[in-house]
Design goal:
alpha/beta, Rossmann fold, 7-stranded mixed beta sheet, 7 strands
Length: about 300
């Protein structure tokens, strides 16, 4: 898999930066760091959008180029923000798997009381740290580790970084599973399951049906063509109805399983004519028990 901190990650940063430029009364979250990850073109779009009319124009252009992408990105950010905030009321560790340009360790008040472990491709991590250093934000409570999901074990990398298996944690796995193989995902889930019971895993995935027939879903065919042109095609998805049994077999209890389109509708912003993706899903699960290696892999 290519370094994931590429165009897709940068566009997500742009979506977050645009949302954060809205008035405090209407924005769904505030990510003051997002703009520091933008390349020249995306940075120019962000500058145009600093005013109300400019922001509406840029949003219209983005929604036309990739229908549903901006709404989906905003909705998933909002939902994960809320879930992380709730989980960190008890958990003292936050783990970002494939951290990309995620800045929750710096912008969520609850994260200031936790130790955060950011695991990602070394080039991505170095670029992110350099950008944040210019912003003045590299606290000691955030630890970085290099991770290749295909060739490295998550639990081994975490152990080297000082992760405490005896304390509960909140794991965030955002925007990653759709780029991996079934075997790599299974391995990560079984490694994360070694965390203390009660730990929470938040992750995103795509409906497997969109890989089989993109034309079924709003915005899917156009998006997948763009991803292919970036060299970042999707490789894996779940059928949403099969997820509870799949996770249960790996020692998790499914807590929530919903599409970003549902989250977007709940924000009250869908009346603007924008739509989220019906095929892009959000899930949360609790580590329920330790599984035996001899258990069958379903």
């Amino acid at each position: 898999m290519k370094n994931r901190a590429s165009l897709t990650a940068e566009y997500m940063a742009l979506f977050r930066a645009l949302e954060s430029s809205r008035p405090a009364s209407s924005r769904l979250f505030n990510d003051s760091f997002a703009a520091c990850f933008l390349g020249e073109l995306r940075k120019w779009l962000y500058r145009v959008a600093r005013g109300e009319l400019g922001r509406r124009l840029v949003e219209r252009v983005l929604d036309s180029a990739a229908p549903g992408a901006r709404a989906a990105g905003i909705a998933r950010t909002k939902w994960i923000d809320d879930e992380v905030t709730a989980a960190l009321a008890e958990a003292k560790q936050l783990v970002l798997l494939g951290a990309g340009f995620d800045t929750r360790a710096f912008r969520l008040p609850e994260a200031a009381r936790a130790t955060t472990f950011e695991l990602d491709h070394p080039e991505t991590s170095r670029a992110k740290q350099a950008a944040l250093k210019k912003h003045g934000s590299l606290p000691d409570r955030v630890r970085y580790g290099s991770l290749d999901f295909i060739h490295q074990a998550v639990d081994a990398v975490l152990e080297q970084a000082g992760f405490d298996k005896m304390q509960t944690a909140c794991f965030v796995w955002e925007g990653v599973t759709n780029y991996l193989t079934a075997e790599a995902i299974d391995a990560v889930l079984r490694q994360v399951q070694h965390a203390a019971p009660g730990s929470i895993l938040l992750f995103t995935y795509v409906d497997r049906a969109v890989l089989e027939n993109p034309e079924r879903f709003f915005g899917a065919a156009k998006l997948m063509a763009r991803l292919e042109s970036y060299g970042e095609s999707w490789t894996f998805g779940y059928y949403p109805e099969a997820l509870p049994a799949y996770l249960a077999a790996r020692g998790y209890h499914l807590l929530a399983n919903l599409s970003v389109a549902d989250v977007w509708r709940r924000t009250g912003r869908s009346g603007s004519g924008t739509r989220g993706y019906e095929f892009y899903w959000l899930a949360s699960a609790r580590v329920a028990r330790q599984t035996n290696e001899s258990e069958s892999r379903s």
